[in-house]
Automatic annotation (TrEMBL):
One Pfam family per UniProt: Amidase_2
Entry's transmembrane regions: 44-63
Name the UniProt record assigns to this protein: N-acetylmuramoyl-L-alanine amidase domain-containing protein
Assigned protein family: Belongs to the N-acetylmuramoyl-L-alanine amidase 2 family.
CDD domains documented for this protein: PGRP (cd06583)
Molecular-function annotations in GO: N-acetylmuramoyl-L-alanine amidase activity; zinc ion binding
């Protein structure tokens, strides 16, 4: 597990560059020395290959992250961190919004509405909710499959059900999956997102879970829950 949040690709690049710099100084010695020292020659080129592989992996990670709509892009207000708890991610919980998909509304507008609701006292079903510090989820996947950044991963999410959210990355998909099905775009984005998060935080497959694995609720709906085993 990389608790610092650094990916293995970043570590490979950093390590490879340090080793390559050391080997390069060795490699630039007189030619007759290199001719008799094939180990140095082979080692140098292997390290160069590692740097290339690591750079490609970093590029792919950056590309995946660039596909997430950032908070500033959807117009987020500042989080009230005094109402939030710091944590270290070690698992994933998957939810649905429990409201039918609304494809005509932009994801930016949906996120602003969710944050406004979250940061004031209100009700979720028959239960009262306090004013939370921010949106309760870390990621929101819209009907089109577009992913928006929610709460900072440095902080635990919030819930109106009874379980501890500390350590759990909260991902919500737009829709009521007791009545409708997730779109192909949503399932593709969910698969890509969980793969990236499990690699980054060293999360094992059995810790990719549904909300109703933790609390008494029908969330995330049977039409979504049946896809969770394929994510592990």
């Amino acid at each position: 597990p990389l608790e610092s949040g650094k990916s293995s690709a970043h570590m490979i690049v950093s390590w490879g560059r340090k080793c390559a710099m050391t080997s390069e100084r060795h490699y630039l010695k007189p030619t007759r020395y290199l001719a008799s020292d094939m180990h140095s020659f082979v080692r140098y080129h292997l390290l160069a290959m590692l740097i290339c592989i690591g750079s490609i992996a970093c590029s792919n990670l950056a590309l995946a992250e660039s596909n997430v709509l950032k908070r500033e892009a959807w117009g987020a207000k500042p989080a009230v961190t005094s109402r939030m708890r710091a944590h270290k991610p070690s698992g994933i919980v998957i939810h649905h919004t429990s409201v039918r998909q609304q494809r005509r509304l932009s994801i930016e507008k949906k996120m602003r509405g969710l944050q406004s609701f979250s940061q004031r006292p209100g009700r979720v079903g028959k239960r009262r909710k306090p004013a939370w510090g921010d949106v309760p989820y870390h990621f929101y996947i819209g009907a089109s499959g577009r992913v928006a950044q929610g709460r900072s991963l440095k902080f635990a999410g919030d819930t109106n059900t009874r379980y501890s959210t500390a350590g759990w990355i909260q991902i919500v998909l737009e829709g009521d999956f007791t009545k409708e099905k997730p779109t192909g775009g949503q399932l593709t984005s969910l698969r890509d997102l969980t793969k990236r998060l499990t690699r980054r935080y060293g999360i094992s497959g059995e810790r990719i879970t549904a909300h109703n694995d933790h609390a008494s609720t029908n969330c995330p709906g049977s039409n979504l829950k049946k896809h969770i085993p394929s994510l592990r």
